[in-house]
Amino acid sequence: MTRLTINGIDEEIAATTVAQLLAARGIDPTVRFLAVAINGAVVRRAIWDETALHPGDTVEIVRPLQGG
Amino acid sequence: MSKDDPFIIAGTTMASRLFVGSARYPNQQVMLDAMAASNPCMVTMSIRRISLEGYAESLVDLLGDRYPILPNTAGCVTARDAVLTAELAREALNTNWIKLELIGDRELLYPDVEQLVHAADELVRKGFVVLPYCNDDPVSCRKLADVGCSAVMPLGSLIGSGRGVANPGAIELICARSPVPVVLDAGIGTASDAALAIELGCDAVMVDTAIAKSHDPVRMAGAMRAAVEAGRLARLAGRIPKRNMAEPSSPQLGLVGT
Fold this sequence. Notes:
The complex is a heterodimer. By secondary structure, chain A is mainly beta. Chain A has one domain: Beta-grasp domain (Ubiquitin-like (UB roll)). Chain A is 10% helix and 38% strand. Chain A has one helix and five strands; from the N terminus they run E-E-H-E-E-E. Chain A has a five-stranded mixed sheet with strand order 2-1-5-3-4, covered by helices on one side. The termini of chain A are far apart. In chain A, 29% of the residues are buried. By secondary structure, chain B is α/β, with parallel strands linked by helices. In chain B, helix 1 runs parallel beside helix 9 and helix 5 runs parallel beside helix 6. Chain B has a single domain, classed as TIM Barrel. Chain B is 38% helix and 17% strand. Chain B starts with 7 loop residues before the first strand and ends in a 21-residue tail after the last helix. The interface between A and B is medium-sized, with 28 and 38 residues. Strand 5 of chain A pairs antiparallel with strand 4 of chain B.
């Protein structure tokens, strides 16, 4: 289990890569318009499979929503 | 839009002089119909954390293939958060355009100029086409242009207030002095506000609430489109000077009687 802050919420999750985290969340990693950042830096989609998560990491998972 | 009167930002010829938002509509179909009626050059969207309960279909799946999307950094209060939001937007939407918003007061939604210039500078250096929502003062606008913003988006009045162009004199000055396109953002309440902004010299206007929260959004969207076109025609035609006294339109010679 890895202790992470995901979208502002602290939790432990069985995932060691970005791709695993998305899968654990039921998020299809092939959907368009998704973006991920770890510790304030964007992780490009092309390297989600290989990007490791470390205990204490802060993860942001975002999509575009309505806005003005 | 007329080919001999193009509206260009950062080398891109825009399809119209109207930016529209995608928020606050009564439902999705009304939003899509209103957008079709408004003929927007870009549609703005926010960047938000997804629900951790899982992925759900999003508005962007509908809009992303129909219109150029202009992501915003709405709600950000620090340059750092705004820069990260812009970078996430670039990754999510595959665009380097960003409507940069940095809020200095949560009730007024007024821009924080100090943070705004700082973030704009950083984003321009990172290769973004930056369109900042900013104060209606010529100095702020000039500073933003100086750091490389591709346009400036001064507020007409408070976001969502519908109070129109609160300071037409300032907007006119900004337009006369700005080296980059001016897009009036925020405060438009009805079609005449949009027409006035364009007549004052703005290159375009940005409208969200005035369309989405009107009684008939699709009709108001059409009104905004027409207002922007009318305003531009009037701007190009050149309005008459304002006078204090009357000036008769009809000939003064040959009056009947007397």
